[in-house]
């Protein structure tokens, strides 16, 4: 009979993963909720890209086995992951525009200020 092992940290945190931040609570955590949303998008993007890469290997394996039906299936799976990654990237980019109230010109302005201070 198989025995299920659980770590004490998972038990203490209610099974929550150490890598994922705890869900935000209450109205004072708007910034935290935004970070949770961004974290979710980054995670989906990462896993979709990893999945697409994995499916590429499956496509190669199916081609080596001369199994066209599996080649087509794995290509469809890869394409779905690539589409998911593209959508996550677009959603992430839309949320990162103006993130933190900063625009792209700020870095250039900071460099100009530093040059004036040195000169």
Question: If you had to describe this structure to a student in words, what would you say it looks like?
Answer:
It is a single chain. The protein is an all-alpha fold. It has a domain at 31-96. The chain contains 4 helices and no strands. The protein has helices at residues 8-12, 30-64, 68-96, 105-118. The protein is elongated, with a radius of gyration of 22 Å.
Put the structure in a nutshell:
The chain is mainly alpha-helical and 119 residues long.
List keywords for this structure.
119 residues; mainly alpha; 4 helices; elongated; disordered N terminus
Beta content: under 5%
Distance between the termini: 76 Å
Task: State Rg.
Answer: 22 Å
List the helices and strands in order: HHHH
Which residue ranges are poorly predicted, with pLDDT under 50 across at least 5 consecutive positions?
2-18, 24-28
Q: What is the overall silhouette?
A: elongated
Largest sheet, strands/sense/barrel: none
Mean pLDDT: 76
Helix vs. strand class: mainly alpha
Helicity range:
55-70%
Strand elements, count: 0
Secondary structure topology:
Blueprint: H1 8-12, H2 30-64, H3 68-96, H4 105-118
């Amino acid at each position: 009979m198989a025995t299920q092992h659980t770590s004490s940290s998972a038990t203490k945190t209610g099974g929550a993963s150490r890598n994922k931040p705890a869900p935000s609570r209450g109205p004072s955590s708007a910034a935290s909720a935004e970070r949770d949303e961004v974290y979710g998008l980054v995670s989906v993007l990462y896993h979709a890209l990893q999945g697409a890469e994995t499916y590429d290997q499956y496509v190669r394996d199916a081609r080596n086995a001369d199994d066209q039906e599996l080649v087509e299936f794995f290509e469809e799976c890869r394409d779905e992951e690539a589409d998911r990654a593209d959508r996550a990237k677009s959603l992430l980019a839309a949320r990162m525009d103006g993130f933190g109230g900063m625009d792209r010109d700020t870095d250039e302005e900071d460099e100009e200020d530093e040059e004036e201070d040195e000169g």
